[in-house]
Structures are given as structure tokens and as C-alpha cells.
Amino acid sequence: MLRCIVIGVAIAGIVGGTAYAQDEEAAADSECAQQLTIAQEVVQDRVDANALNEADQEKVYQLLDEADALCTEGKSQEASATLATINQMVAKGQ
Fold first, then answer.
1. Please, are residues 68 and 36 in contact by the beta-carbon 8 Å criterion?
2. Over the stretch 37-47, which tens digit does the pLDDT of each residue have?
3. Which residues contact 70 (CB under 8 A, 6 or more apart)?
4. Contact by Cβ (8 Å): 90, 60
5. Would you put residue 74 in left (φ > 0), alpha (ψ -120 to 50) or beta?
6. Burial of 71 (0-12, 13-18, 19+ CB in 10 A)
7. C-alpha radius of gyration, the chain, whole number
8. How far, in Å, CA of 28 to CA of 25, rounded?
9. Whole-model pTM?
10. What is the mean pLDDT of the chain?
11. CA neighbours within 13 Å on the CB side: how many for 71?
12. Sign of the CA dihedral 18, 23, 28, 29?
């Protein structure tokens, strides 16, 4: 009986640890998606205001696609770096 309890507790610990790791990944993915959404809104506002020339718009949209792919792949740090580049480009266009 004691053996069954110990095994049950061990399994619960393993499953709980896996769920915790998945929650951390989901939180990072969610934060990445939020940053991406904010950047897209800022870019759209700048495009609507004609604050970016056509070449800059194309480059920014290409970088947004790259950041989206990086977020999807779970590479939040790289996506954040790409989003920082976008923010700098958009700020220059002001």
C-alpha cells in the first residue's frame, strides 16, 4: 500500500513538473505574441500616417514576418531583438 502511494506521488510530481515547464513556455509565447501585436499596431499607425517610405515599409513588414515566425518557433529572445529593430526603424520615420 505504501509503495502505491509513493509511486502515485512520484508520478504526480513528474506530471506537475512537465505542466509547469509548459506553462513557462506558454507565458513566454504569450509575451512574444503581445509584443508582436503591439509592434504591428505601431507600424500600422505609422503607415496610415504616411510616416514611412515604401522601402522602409517593405523592410518593416519583412521583419514583422520574421518576428512572427520566431515567436511561433518559441525563439522569444530573437523575436524581441527583431522587434527592437522594427521599433528603431519606426521611430526614425517619425
1. yes
2. 999 999 999 99
3. 32, 76, 78, 79, 82
4. yes
5. left
6. buried
7. 21
8. 5
9. 0.68
10. 81
11. 21
12. positive
